[in-house]
Amino acid sequence: MSIPSVPLLINGEFVQSKTTEWRDVVNPATQEVIARVPMATQEELDAAVAAAKEAFKTWRYTPIGTRARIFLKLQQLIRENIKEVAAILTREQGKTLPDAEGDVFRGLEVVEHAANIGTLQMGEFANNVAGGVDTYTILQPLGVCAGITPFNFPAMIPLWMFPMAIATGNTFVLKPSEQDPMSTIRLCELALEAGIPAGVLNVVHGGVDVVNGICDHKDIKAISFVGSTGVGTHVYNRASLAGKRVQCMMGAKNHAIVLPDCNKEQTLNALAGASFGAAGQRCMALPVVILVGEARNWVDEIAERAKGLKVGNGATPGVDVGPLVNKNARARVDNLIASGVEQGATLVLDGRNPQLEGAEANGNFVGPTLFKDVTVDMDIYKQEIFGPVMCVMGAETLEEAIQIINDNPNGNGTALFTQSGAAAHKFQEEIDVGQVGINVPIPVPVPLFSFTGSRASKLGDLGPYGKQVITFYTQTKTITKRWFDEANAGGVHTTISLK
């Protein structure tokens, strides 16, 4: 059976690349090669941007209602095809089918928000700010925008990007992860079916060369990025120097504080799900847990919940923890676990080399892994592991725990588990992290708000989706207007006053 090739999307057509460089798309649970993806040529990137630039000439003037109806149709199509998209996603990325459906659904919420673009893109008006003078603002699209998305959310993150950019009147060039591009392409097929015109949405695949090409291209006005800190910093610096707007959501080291007055059962279940779900491959995962006071005695009970999670192929019903995305990711996680042991942490539960049979025996599996006695100088604390590894620390007081978190350079997400309103208020006020959960382990906001990671987890002022991204994808133009008639024409004024 021949291996399918993942197409490019240029000017409304899915086309085969003319590149000589291809990479395999591999099922991480079985090592089966399921597709091959092209590393697009410079000419193909140029063609995608040119198509977007040409389409912008008319798309920018498309009525708001017309744009909104396209996204109403797209949300309907995604709902009708969510299980199909999730199955593709699981096969190429590895996460469990329920988690894959959640991946698609969280992106779908942004599509629904894009359908409300009429109220989101309204400007401001002030009547008679001076003698006969009115002032108002309009929000105009920028032009060609681009998105670079990661492997861990191949449905949600593209749907964070292109719907809001296109709904606000821009055109878009998307570069999905070359590791799992197939579910993204299926969503783009649905976008065209919903009525997005030729050239408004384009897709190119590739690695470093394509990323640099996007950063450098003179006709791309703004770039949205989600991925690692190293790549995000490179994209931000290179694209900013090229005069583009850039937003980069990057690495993290999220912490939870557990106070002994919390609802114990709910808290322990939440910790296990947030730490080990998606095999820990979330920028909003919960890899560090700080147990305060008497809660420091709960480590064994966390371990019991971790032991009860089933590891295996994400397509198998009942599996809780799927594989890591590739062999290199597995090797990196294994090495970090080994470093934790070498540097003095206590390995309570070792998830390396889980015993699986059949095709899964070759998969990139690491089971839930639990450390205690972790300190801030250890590599398992300092590095983003991006695997199913929980690092447990202890603290005497809430104040001590808050200080640990604030001393960490990252600021993506954090959580506090307590039944004390006073403790919750102190935490939300004093914690220096952009997204805060109170008894919520993964505090990713719904699209009515925006993703607000902070500090080393983010470069750029504005977050993806929500109200902030409307500002990111538009230029505010302020108009100050006065009409004269013969009776009030007035004389020459040499001052700046509007009187």
Q: Name the helicity range.
A: 25-40%
How would you sum up the major sheet?
A: 7 strands, mixed
Structural class: alpha/beta
Count of alpha and pi helical runs:
16
CATH superfamily of the largest domain: Aldehyde Dehydrogenase, Chain A, domain 1
The counted number of beta strands is: 22
**CATH architecture descriptor text of the largest domain:** 3-Layer(aba) Sandwich
**Oligomeric state of the chains present here:** single chain
CATH topology of the largest domain: Aldehyde Dehydrogenase, Chain A, domain 1
Morphology call: globular
Quote the average pLDDT.
96
Strand percentage: 15-25%
Family: Belongs to the aldehyde dehydrogenase family.
GO molecular function: methylmalonate-semialdehyde dehydrogenase (acylating, NAD) activity
Pfam family, one: Aldedh
Domain Aldehyde dehydrogenase: 14-479
List the helices and strands and how they pair.
Elements: E1 8-10, E2 13-15, E3 22-26, E4 33-38, H1 42-59, H2 64-80, H3 82-93, H4 97-114, H5 117-120, E5 125-130, E6 133-141, E7 144-148, H6 156-167, E8 171-175, H7 182-194, E9 201-203, H8 208-216, E10 220-226, H9 229-241, E11 245-249, E12 255-258, H10 264-276, E13 288-292, H11 299-307, H12 327-342, E14 346-349, E15 369-372, H13 379-382, E16 389-395, H14 398-407, E17 410-411, E18 414-417, H15 421-430, E19 436-438, E20 454-455, E21 458-459, H16 466-472, E22 474-482
Parallel strand pairs: 7-8, 7-10, 8-9, 10-11, 12-13, 12-18, 13-16, 15-16, 18-19
Antiparallel strand pairs: 1-2, 3-4, 5-6, 6-22, 11-21, 14-15, 17-20
